[in-house]
Amino acid sequence: MDTVASTGISSFGWRYWIIQPHLAMHIPDGFLNLPVILVTWIIAIGLIALAIRQAQAEYQERTVPLMGVCAAFIFAAQMINFPIPGGTSGHLLGGTLAGALLGPWAGSLVMVAVFIVQGVLFQDGGLTVLGANIFNMGLIGTFGGYYLYRTVRFAIGRDRLSGLVIGAAIAAWTSVVVASIVCALELAISRTVPLAVAFTAMASWHVLIGIGEALITVVALSFIWRTRPELLYDPPRKTKVSTSRPLSRY
């Protein structure tokens, strides 16, 4: 990638446009070196094994159908791209959404299943770097997104819609930006592109892509809050209304 014909385009320029088509963070084969591939695979497999263990211990059978529905929704939603200035586009990642609905463990398993199907059947991301794609977009987005969402929501008010909206928006946007920065670091460590180029190409555009992620996440969770709040992993607590009659004064 370091040898190109001289066309008057600066080194920064052509490297920027090479990395730009992959702004959705689905890293293709050949973009990461072997050490980064191995480390991300080890982390991904370890977290997947832990997620399976925790999910089996914590969740009931009724969670399985919800996991299937959530996976189908996220997979379908990722097929819908929204335009971003500069000739590229973004789509939902869904980590925060999956975490808010299913919790971090089952949510992570859903995201892993989605990315495996995308990589194997639709060639959306390479197979050798599937561990990195799962780590970046699934595990960081789900674990980090869920715990940030939970922290903000509980700080504002667990039983208030405003807490869910603000928490989901902040967590969804942050998870996308952080995942893009981690992806940029992996590309830089692999010497695919310089860190400055990777960081500029990934983080700058994902600041905008994160806004779309936040909007979709907030709309979906707000709808569930109003219609089936019990489906949320941290459902709002019902306010107990006292049925006792007040004492009469004579």
TrEMBL record:
Superkingdom to which the source organism belongs: Bacteria
Membrane protein topology class: Multi-pass membrane protein
Gene Ontology annotations of biological process type: transition metal ion transport
Keywords: Cell membrane, Membrane, Transmembrane, Transmembrane helix, Transport
Chain ranges passing through the membrane: 31-52, 64-84, 96-117, 129-149, 161-185, 197-225
GO cellular component labels: plasma membrane
InterPro entries xrefs: CbiM/NikMN
Pfam families recorded: CbiM (PF01891)
Subcellular location(s) of the protein: Cell membrane
NCBIfam families according to UniProt: PRK06265.1-1
PANTHER family: METAL TRANSPORT PROTEIN HI_1621-RELATED
The protein's name: Cobalt transporter CbiM
Gene behind the chain: cbiM
